[in-house]
Amino acid sequence: MVSRNIYLQLALRIILITLTIIASTYFFFNKQYIVGSVGILILVGQTTALINYVNQTNRKIAYFFDAIKNEDFTLRFPEKLSVKSLEELNHSLNMLNGMIQDIHLKKQAQEQYYQEILRQADIGIFTINPKGHILYANPTVQNLINYRPLNHVKQLNQVDGKLYQLFKDLKPFDNTIFQLGNERGKRELSLKCTPIQIEGEQLLLVVVHDIHKELDEKETDSWVKLIRVLTHEIMNTITPITSISESILNYFKTGNQLTSPTNFTEDEIKNTAKGLEVIKEQGNDLMSFVQSYRTFLSVPEPDRELVPAHKILAKTKILLNEQKDSFAVQIETLIEPQELELFIDQKQITQVLLNLGKNAQQSLQNQEDATIRIIAGVNEMDKKYVQVWDNGPGIPPELIDEIFVPFFTTKNTGTGIGLSLSKQIMRLHGGSLRVVSKENNTVFTLAFD
Hints:
The protein is an alpha+beta fold. The protein folds into four domains: about 1-110, no CATH class; about 120-210, PAS domain (Beta-Lactamase); about 215-295; about 305-449, Histidine kinase-like ATPase, C-terminal domain (Heat Shock Protein 90, 2-Layer Sandwich), CATH 3.30.565. It is about 50% helix and about 20% strand. It has ten helices and 14 strands. Strand 6 (about 255) and strand 7 (about 255-260) form a beta hairpin. The protein is elongated. Its EC number is 2.7.13.3.
């Protein structure tokens, strides 16, 4: 409606100017110079009025956009004018100004809402541009690092030189743990980096989390689980020894008096011999249990070297084929890229893969199309990994958190330290051992840093 009225105003003015030009020309050709001169004066006035009309409209629009640019929403245009088109233009500009003001206020409220969430978050969050300037840092990260205000990564050099070097070399998708020591004690900081782009500028979003409390809780939980398993195993071994010892002692004592050798029957002598054999066996089992505990605690530091992935996977496949029982298990290997090399202790990692493979074989008994796949590759974060996959029944959800606990086992044979020992070996390699399991799909992943 506004543009239509302005269009009509301009068209009318241009038509009047054109008619004035024609009339003035006509009078000049007929030598009526006075009337022609009056026409020229009228033409000058009409042209000036047209220019002022266009400039007035342009100035209003220019003022409007300057006010919006400067976030000044107090600008108001009069809406009661003699010129209908300008009155409607002013009304439309005022309406648009009000709409933009509402959007701006909502945006500010939303920004304050998100900023408050970031300020109250238990994790530290800040963003860094390519020049090292810290564009935003919430109070949590300032408390964790014990420095404020944070404006540039160079300030971290005053906190800890190693921390500054770490942030200086941060790259997208980096994930690391740093131990920060200060007058408040030691903190285990977990740092995760994510690239983001805002208004065409590449930034690095860094999330900092103090995992010391979580580590303490997990350590306590691990000790509770370990003590529970140790107590269970030791009690299972000691209880028969105590019971049999009491039975044998009853043969040799009546009250406080020793039984005469002549009073022993043949059955009592046989039962005594059998009882002593059981005590010996239980003692040997307890010795084996203690020995396995010593093995778990004395894993040597890895003697690492570059080993072609195809070499260790082929060796593991051969060893697993020798371990297979009467049922058929198909063992496959897959390496991508083919020239992949792993910086590992070959003996220790072979032991880990063999243990995982044996567990997979045992889970595949009586399974149709039983298959084990050993896969080596590089993930999207450029980290090398080896996976052991099987299509067995899977690990029950209630046991998934228990399988790495030392001496925990659901099998009738074995010590229950295979998986915990494997995880210990991966920890010494600076990597991790994780499992994801569901029906017909169990994957153990060895991740190397």
